[in-house]
Write a structure and sequence with these properties.
mainly beta, single chain, ATP-binding, receptor, 5% helix, ten-stranded mixed β-sheet, Leu-rich_rpt, 647 residues, globular
């Protein structure tokens, strides 16, 4: 009887702790609700599991329940708790220090919330802990040295927080550690040499921090490593040439955005199971090592933005053929190097799974082969900043899933293919800085998902098809500048309600600025300079409250400057120079700062405050017995200063 009462009291203690926890938690209405009934056993409550031996609460799993609020200190009263999983919610506030009372706890997962405050060193009291996952919160402070006392820990995830300071060498004491993830913080200093003692480590993620120095050689000898992710730091030095032998289980090698030098280690290509090689944005030089054909499981290969060149027997054709066995390849980038030559027909033989292909910023010449249309899995194709010539192949229209097309800064000529209208998934197109001619194909009306369009710096002509201005999805950039477009700017411009930047400068547009521009309420930049626009500046422009940049210079605009333009508080740059504007220039807002507001070249415009004044002077002169009253009227007008003398 006494034993039964003790058990009853214990489960009641757990019930009260859980109800106190629930009192500080609320739920997002869109989430599945749960209810804990005081009159039933907590062992039957949603997300609660009890120990079958003593009927005490052993596990709480409320992940992804849309919880808000904070974690109650009462959680520390659940003395038999072994697993607490509250990930993927919107819980805020600090981690209560009482959580360190849960000395039986093995799993603590609070990832993907909005928790804040410091990591308490008392977490080291949770000596049974196997998994500590606090990823994606707003936790600040340093990584406590005392975490090294968690000798049973296998997974330590502290990534995507606001942690700073050094990586404590004491973490090397956790010999059972298989995952150490500290990425996306503000950690600084060197990588401790001692981490090389973690001979069971499979994942080391230090990406996106402020770490510096060289990678200790001991790290390259952790033979259990499967994922080495150290991108976006300030690391330098050379990679060991034998890295492919000392890290035989490596599947992910990500060292992007650092200052590594020397050559790509050829031994990497002996890792026949490797899936990801990312070494972009470093100072690597030399040639691309042979042996890519040995990597059948390769999914991502990114060596862009280095100083790589072809070897003696290498060219783009041989490089592409070496990837013929990599049937799982979906991301290929070798842009921003010193590679040269023509693009071979064999490019169409790349993996049909390839989704993103970056070739820009090299020295490729010749035409884009029509076989590019065989890469039907492409969602992104970037070949900017080369010296390509000839026409854009119609076959690009076969890439039905293409979302981003970047062909800028080449010497492509001819007309924009009508087949581009078949690219219904396209959301970004950049054909700028070529010598394309003709009009914008009417088929562009099919771009229902277009976010950004840049056709600037070409020789395109004709009027803007209504279809281009009927794309409500355009929300980033529409740039048609530096072409030969003519005709009026259509009233349909009002349909670009979400557009942030519109550049129509340096064309031959004529007629009035349409007052419907007021409906483009998201505009921050509007450039219509260097056209043949006439008529007044529409008052409606002042209704675009977020406008920061406005350039209407070098047109034939007339009339007065709308006074309400001075009420645009977001305005940072205004250029109305070289028009036929007249009257008085406004004097408030942006107009007060002559380093940001340009109005010269308008001979009828009165810019200075003195233009507003008319002064009358008189004086008396005596000559002998005669008295002369001389009146002098000085008028300041937009046409200049006029003196009238009356005697």
């Amino acid at each position: 009887m006494c034993s039964h009462q003790t058990a009853s009291f214990s489960i009641n203690t757990d019930r009260e702790a859980l109800l106190s926890f629930k009192s500080q938690i609320s739920q997002n209405p869109q989430s599945l609700s749960f209810s804990w009934d005081r009159n039933t056993s907590p062992c039957n409550w949603t997300g609660v599991t009890c120990n079958t031996r003593n009927r005490r609460v052993a596990s709480i799993n409320l992940s992804g329940h849309g919880l808000t609020g904070s974690i109650s200190p009462s959680i520390g009263n659940l003395s038999f708790l072994t697993s607490l999983q509250l990930q993927n919610n919107q819980i805020r506030g600090p981690i209560p220090k009482e959580i360190t009372n849960l000395y039986r706890l093995r799993v603590l997962n609070l990832s993907s919330n909005s928790l804040e405050g410091f990591l308490t060193s008392n977490l080291s009291k949770l000596i049974e802990l196997r998994i500590l996952d606090l990823t994606s919160n707003m936790i600040t402070g340093i990584v406590p040295n005392q975490l090294g006392d968690l000798k049973n820990l296998t997974i330590l995830n502290l990534g995507k927080n606001l942690l700073h300071g050094p990586i404590p060498p004491s973490l090397s004491n956790i010999s059972s550690l298989t995952v150490l993830s500290l990425g996306t913080n503000s950690l600084s200093g060197l990588v401790p040499y001692e981490l090389g003692r973690l001979q069971r480590l499979q994942v080391l993620d230090l990406t996106i921090n402020n770490l510096s120095g060289t990678i200790p050689p001991s790290i390259y000898n952790v033979s259990s490593l499967e994922s080495l992710v150290i991108a976006s730091n300030n690391f330098w030095g050379r990679f060991p040439s034998n890295i492919g032998y000392t890290l035989p289980k490596l599947l992910v090698f990500n060292v992007c955005f650092n200052k590594f030098s020397g050559e790509i280690p050829a031994s990497l290509y002996n890792l026949t199971n490797i899936k990801v090689i990312r070494a972009a944005h470093n100072l690597l030089e030399g040639t691309i090592p042979p042996g890519l054909g040995n990597l059948p499981f390769l999914e991502m290969y990114n060596i862009g933005f280095n100083k790589l060149v072809w070897g003696r027997d290498q060219n783009l054709d041989s490089f592409i053929k070496s990837l013929s066995n990599s049937s799982k390849l979906n991301f290929l980038a070798f842009d921003g190097n010193l590679l040269e030559g023509v693009i071979p027909v064999s490019i169409g033989n790349l993996s049909k799974n390839i989704s993103k292909l970056f070739m820009g910023g090299n020295r490729f010449t010749g035409k884009i082969p029509s076989s590019i249309g065989d890469l039907t899995g492409l969602t992104l194709f970037n070949i900017t900043d080369n010296s390509l010539t000839g026409e854009i192949p119609q076959e690009i229209g076969k890439l039905k899933g293409l979302q981003v097309l970047e062909l800028a800064r080449n010497r492509l000529s001819g007309r924009i293919p009508e087949s581009f209208g078949d690219l219904g998934a396209l959301n970004e197109i950049n054909l700028s800085h070529n010598i394309l001619e003709g009009g914008i194909p009417p088929s562009f009306i099919n771009f229902k998902n277009m976010l950004s369009m840049d056709l600037s710096n070409n020789m395109l002509n004709g009027s803007i098809p209504n279809g281009v201005l009927s794309l409500p999805s355009l929300s980033a950039v529409l740039n048609l500048s530096k072409n030969l477009f003519s005709g009026p700017i259509p009233q349909d411009i009002s349909r670009l309600e979400s557009l942030v930047s519109l550049d129509l400068s340096s064309n031959n547009f004529s007629g009035h600025i349409p007052s419907s521009i007021k409906d483009c309420q998201s505009l921050e930049k509007l450039n219509m300079a260097s056209n043949n626009l006439d008529g007044p500046i529409p008052d409606a422009l002042a209704e675009v409250k977020g406008l920061e940049f406005l350039d209407l210079s070098s047109n034939q605009l007339s009339g007065v400057i709308p006074p309400k333009l001075q009420e645009l508080q977001a305005m940072k740059f205004l250029n109305l120079s070289f028009n036929n504007l007249g009257g008085w220039a406004p004097s408030s807002g942006i107009f007060k700062d002559h380093s940001k507001a340009y109005m010269e070249g308008n001979p009828k415009l009165c810019i200075h405050a003195t233009c507003r004044k008319t002064r009358t002077h008189f004086k008396i002169l005596k000559k002998g017995q005669k008295v002369y009253h001389i009146y002098s009227i000085i008028k300041f007008t937009p046409q200049g200063t006029i003196y009238e003398c009356l005697i």
